[in-house]
Amino acid sequence: MRSDAKTPQNIRPNAPPRDGFVLSVDRKFKTRYETADEAVSAADKLKANFPAIDVAIFDVINKTYTAVVSKSPSIAPPAP
Questions:
Q1: Taking the model in full, what pTM does it have?
Q2: Does 48 reside within a domain?
Q3: Would you say residue 1 lies in a domain?
């Protein structure tokens, strides 16, 4: 493991984050990241493995949510 690589921080349930980007799963804060790119990468991986869950990235400074959509093609129902 590289010593200069930062690990994501888990969020304390009773203390809202003050900075960074937070991965939100089903509207619950899960993990904090320093950069948006790190958060997007983690969110994409999570959404690819579990497409049914609601995944978003919360920008703490701007107080905005950005929804993450699945990049895999949806399965269409069979034609009648």
A1: 0.73
A2: yes
A3: no
Distance CA 80, CA 78 (A): 6
Q: How many domains does one find in the chain?
A: 1
Location of structure tokens 């991986």: 45
CB 21 within 8 A of CB 65: no
Q: Which domain holds residue 42?
A: 9-68
Q: Judge whether 28 and 51 are in contact, CB under 8 Å.
A: no
Q: DSSP labels for 30-75?
A: EEEESSHHHHHHHHHHHHHH-TTS-EEEEETTTTEEEEE---SPPP
- Predicted confidence pLDDT, tens digits, the chain (80 residues): 455 667 777 777 666 788 999 999 998 899 999 999 999 999 999 999 999 999 999 999 999 999 998 876 555 455 55
